[in-house]
Design a protein that fits this description.
The two termini are 39 Å apart. The chain has helices at residues 9-20, 38-50, 65-71, 92-102, 124-135, 155-158, 171-182, 186-195, 200-208, 210-227, 231-244, 247-268, 281-290, 293-309, 316-326, 334-345; strands at 27-31, 78-81, 112-116, 141-147, 162-165. The mean pLDDT is 93. Helix 9 (200-208) crosses helix 10 and helix 11 runs antiparallel to helix 15 (316-326). It is built from 16 helices and 5 strands. The chain folds into 3 domains: 9-165, 3-Layer(aba) Sandwich (Rossmann fold), CATH 3.40.50.300; 169-208; 210-345, Zinc Finger, Delta Prime, domain 3 (Up-down Bundle), CATH 1.20.272. Helix 4 (92-102) links the parallel strand 2 (78-81) and strand 3. By secondary structure, it is α/β, with parallel strands linked by helices.
């Protein structure tokens, strides 16, 4: 059994063994990039802990009342804490309210479970408040924390958790999983696995929502227009993005740009590895002839630095202006842009 969870088999096996051997920790920290399946694995763990009819120790049936409610995040013994919106701030008041709920005995299950999502968004006061609960945990309580990485949390919190570092799947393995488990057509599965960069959660969303796939390609089409635009237009676009988009919306856009420039870099090396965006192969080849490998690497570094800056309290408009001005201004034929647009409409 794999808990109906794709990838990270070692993490699943560890959690299953903790249940079957009665060696549960008080707190677990699920680390990894967004979309890799942190929340999903935490919920599968919660199901195995509170399942009413487990087939065997460390498993869950998936059909009992507890399993269904936990999958829907509506179980009375599940307390979910997160910032009000992605990219927001998880505040100390939310932790104090959680502490009150955790002081109560479980209503139905064996354990009362606290699920703290994207805990890197917790401010320092909230993290310190949670630390008190980790130091003196109530009985019959398990705390499950998800975060991008452990370095964004207080070391004293990390040291009190069992850490599970989740990694994306190999794209070929993810594509094969989509074919076998989701009945995906082979070429579409391969395309989606590359777009998702091996992250199963994102892949499932792209597979079942054509609009999400369209949005991915639209991001790159818009980026091509940005590369051929004037500096004045770039200032205007930075201002508009800063007003209309949140950090949580900017990050996946920049990650898509990062994948696109990886494709361009591979092309400058004449590398035969599969592209993330084969739909834009003509644009990628054209850009690769206009700039060299060294400049591509500089752009990749600039994008990574921008993503790091966005993790803090940055001035969005200033950050975007710096990035947009540092991107090369390229001469891309209008016919190429129109061709790319037609391709994503198919």
């Amino acid at each position: 059994m794999n808990w109906n969870y794709y990838g990270n088999a070692a993490a699943v096996a560890l959690l299953r063994s903790h249940i079957s051997t009665g060696s549960l920790r008080q707190a677990y920290l699920f680390c990894g990039p967004s979309g890799v399946g942190r929340r999903t694995l935490a919920l599968r763990f919660a199901q195995a802990l509170n399942c009413l009819n487990p087939p065997q120790a460390g498993e869950h049936c998936g059909t009992c009342r507890a399993c269904k409610l936990l999958a829907e995040m509506r179980h009375p013994d599940l307390e979910i804490v997160a910032a009000e919106q992605r990219g927001g701030v998880l505040r100390v008041e939310q932790i104090r309210e959680l502490q009150h709920h955790l002081s109560l005995a479980p209503y139905e299950g064996r354990f009362r479970i606290a699920l703290l999502l994207r805990f890197e968004e917790a401010n320092l006061n909230a993290q310190n408040a949670l630390l008190k609960t980790l130091e003196e945990p109530p009985p019959k309580v398990l705390i499950l924390i998800t975060a991008e990485d452990s370095e964004s949390l207080l070391p004293t919190i990390v040291s009190r958790c069992e850490i599970l570092r989740l990694r994306p799947m190999a794209t070929q393995l993810l594509a094969q999983t989509l074919i076998e488990e989701q009945a995906a057509e082979a070429s579409l599965a391969t395309q989606i696995a590359r777009l998702a960069a091996g992250r199963a959660g994102i892949a499932l969303r792209l597979l079942h929502d054509p609009d999400e796939r369209q949005k991915q390609y639209q991001i790159i089409a818009d980026h091509l227009h940005l590369l051929s635009s004037s500096y004045l237009d770039r200032f205007a676009l930075a201002e508009r993005f800063a007003k209309e988009m949140t950090k949580a919306e900017l990050v996946p856009m920049l990650e898509s740009w990062l994948s696109f420039w990886r494709d361009v870099t591979l092309c400058t090396y004449a590398d035969q590895q599969p592209l993330t965006y084969p739909t834009f192969h003509e644009s990628i080849a054209t850009i690769a002839t206009q700039i060299g490998t060294e400049q591509c690497l500089q752009i990749l570094m600039q994008l990574r630095q921008t993503l790091e800056i966005l993790q803090g309290n940055a001035n969005l408009r200033l950050v975007l202006e710096v990035l947009f001005l540092n991107l090369p201004r390229l001469s891309l034929p209008q016919s190429l842009l129109q061709s790319a647009w037609k391709d994503i409409q198919r």
